[in-house]
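Task: sequence design from structure.
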């Protein structure tokens, strides 16, 4: 495939979610619930006892609740999407892999474009399973390849080689160890990634990126329930999945999403809202992702909203001092991925991300997995350091700090291998 265009008609789905939300009260009217809300009970308390009721009633309710009160509604899928293969190289990593760089665009030229870097193993006859994830520092940072351009717009000053928030040649290859793509290739997995700023530069405004393109005439910022930056990034991951579904080298039944920290929060949200994603690895995702909003360990709802006011929707700020009013906690987001596998991986020194609370989120999500006949968490307690637990709800904690490393990827590959198998 060289260039292709697709047209979508997804409107009705979005309307039905928002119709469901019509009788959701203002955050201040929600009852305080210090205990974790039961994923298997409707908002009004009615128990959910069958898989059919979970799928038809509770799951859509939770999807609406999370968007209404926390992340904001994702924009609708684009009416038009175009894929252009910009560069390819069949001889990557000494011939072990092929690279494709694909630009994903949405019609109006002013709309953001996703620059997807895809590296696919050459060995094996069948299409390859793939890890898809957002990166922080640009595609040019994750491989040593002079032909991959750095992002053109705003970029984090913490990335290597960045001057005045603009990427430069000095950052090339600086994230090779963070992504360890060759290691995934050797184990039969493709890797697809793009810079999160392609969709929305991570700054506390809505002047650039995706948001302005969905404003009504005269609107200058998102409404209280419109998606924030994390919702926009998740939308971007969904568009990358649209592309992967058109690439014959990719096994569309085995698309795993992965992400570190804020990109991990996004990976989990993307998987919760899109069943085309087969597996999720939100790595050290913490508050607003895999850690509970209730409780006092690690980052709080108020801290995350104060420092990153653009990540979530306006309504979420109303929970700053009262997270116990939330009609869900993050175990319900994990449960939305059921029966698909989820791995929460952590580091001991990363207490900001509350590794202990994350294990509790898996325990609390498990009844949904059991109801769906998917098993769940094999571990009865947090597994020892460096040991991946079994079951569809995986947990892993290693020594060390907040980072994504080659060794973390070994665990991601082990988990994905157990759950999805490798390329035959
Ligand atoms: C900050 C933020 C976290 C986030 C992290 C990251 O520490 O408080 O919520 O996960 O940045 O994205 O690295």
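Answer:
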């Amino acid at each position: 495939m060289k260039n292709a265009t697709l047209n979508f008609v997804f409107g009705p789905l979005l309307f039905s979610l928002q119709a469901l939300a019509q009788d959701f009260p203002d955050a201040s009217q929600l009852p305080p619930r210090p205990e974790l809300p039961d994923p298997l009970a409707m908002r009004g308390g009615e128990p959910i006892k069958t898989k059919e009721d979970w799928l038809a009633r509770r799951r859509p309710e939770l999807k609406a609740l999370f968007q209404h009160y926390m992340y904001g509604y994702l924009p609708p899928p684009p009416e038009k999407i175009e894929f252009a293969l910009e560069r390819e190289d069949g001889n990557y990593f000494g011939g072990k892999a092929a690279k494709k760089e694909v630009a994903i665009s949405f019609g109006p030229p002013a709309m953001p474009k996703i620059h997807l870097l895809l590296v696919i193993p050459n060995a094996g006859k069948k299409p390859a399973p793939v890890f898809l994830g957002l990166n922080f520092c640009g595609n040019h940072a994750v491989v040593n390849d002079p032909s991959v351009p750095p992002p053109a717009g705003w970029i984090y000053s913490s990335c290597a080689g960045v001057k005045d928030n603009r990427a430069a040649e000095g950052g090339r290859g600086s994230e090779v160890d963070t992504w360890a793509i060759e290691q995934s290739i050797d184990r039969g997995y493709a890797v697809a990634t793009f810079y999160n700023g392609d969709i929305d530069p991570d700054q506390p405004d809505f002047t650039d990126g995706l948001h302005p393109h969905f404003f009504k005439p005269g609107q200058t910022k998102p409404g209280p329930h419109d998606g924030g930056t994390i919702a926009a990034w998740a939308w971007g991951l969904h568009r990358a999945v649209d592309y992967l579904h058109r690439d014959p080298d990719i096994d569309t039944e085995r698309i795993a999403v992965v992400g570190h920290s804020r990109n991990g929060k996004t990976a989990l949200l993307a998987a919760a809202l899109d069943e085309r994603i087969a597996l999720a690895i939100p790595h050290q995702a913490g508050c607003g992702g895999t850690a509970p909003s209730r409780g006092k360990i690690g980052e709080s709802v108020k801290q995350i909203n104060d420092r990153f006011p653009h990540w979530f929707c306006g309504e979420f700020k109303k929970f700053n001092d009262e997270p116990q009013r939330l009609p869900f906690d993050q175990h319900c987001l994990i449960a939305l991925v059921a029966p698909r596998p989820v791995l929460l991986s952590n580091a001991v020194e990363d207490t900001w991300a509350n590794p202990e609370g994350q294990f509790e989120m898996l325990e609390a999500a498990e009844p949904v997995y059991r109801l769906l006949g998917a098993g769940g968490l094999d571990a009865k307690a947090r597994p020892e350091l460096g040991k991946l637990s079994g079951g569809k709800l995986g947990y892993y904690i290693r020594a060390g700090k907040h980072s994504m490393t080659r060794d973390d990827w070994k665990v991601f590959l082990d988990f994905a291998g157990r759950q999805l198998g490798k390329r035959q």
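The pocket of alpha-D-glucopyranuronic acid is lined by residues 261-262, 286-287, 299, 304, 307, 352 (CB under 6 Å).
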